[in-house]
Amino acid sequence: MYKRVRLKDTVEVPPEHLADVTNSRVRKLLQDKLEGRMDEDVGSVVSVTRVNDIGDGAVLPNRPGVYYEAEFDAVTFDPDMQEVVDGNVVEVVEFGAFVGIGPVDGLLHVSQISDEYLAYDGENQQLASTESNQTLGVEDSVRVRVVTKSIDERNPRDSKIGLTAKQPGLGKHQWLEADAEEREATAEGS
Fold first, then answer.
1. DSSP string, the chain
2. Segments of the chain scoring below 50 in pLDDT
């Protein structure tokens, strides 16, 4: 999910900073340009940590800055398909729950939460089962699996990560703990 990678990119150094083309200046410019950006190949750039090399500058016609290719280390977030992750519910809507997993949110569709019917309770910002009285609401901790991933580099907010909790060992942490306690009590009673 989180990876440390070595990348190359071009950064524009504005005219007022041409006397200060240092690793720290280039790092700051790369951070401003890349952090939070989604990329199909590396995922979301969380942090530019270190600049390793700055190439020769190039001047482009009708552009005021000088362009430098830099090689740098970065921390990225790129969830793998089928990866199991823990996160917190950040929003509940009629069709499911958005779960914060690292710097992005994934959708846990209502059909992927439980085998029970879950009704939307907008007043309490939760999905509730009428069969077992289980609820899933904002700030609940969940364990989910990544089942779909569609990265939109131009509009990162339009990127979509689909999640499921419909397997043993997945779901709201409180439900998982209750299941474990029930299994333990059953084993002790046998």
1. -EEEEEEEEEEEEPGGGGGG--HHHHHHHHHHHHTT-EETTTEEEEEEEEEEEEEEEEE-TT-SSEEEEEEEEEEEE-PPTT-EEEEEEEEEETTEEEEEETTEEEEEEGGGT-SS-EEEETTTTEEEETTT--EEETT-EEEEEEEEEE--SS-GGG-EEEEE--STT-EEHHHHHHHHHHHHHHHHH-
2. none
Say how far apart CA 115 and CA 128 lie, in whole Å.
12
Question: What's the token pair of residue 11?
Answer: 């950064």
Edge-to-edge strand ranges of the sheet holding 38-39: 2-13, 66-77, 43-59, 38-39
Closest CA to 142 of 96, 182, 185, 88: 88
Spatial distance between the Cα atoms of 46 and 146, rounded to a whole number of angstroms: 19
pLDDT, tens only, 154-163:
666 667 899 9
Q: In which residue are the tokens 């979509």 written?
A: 160
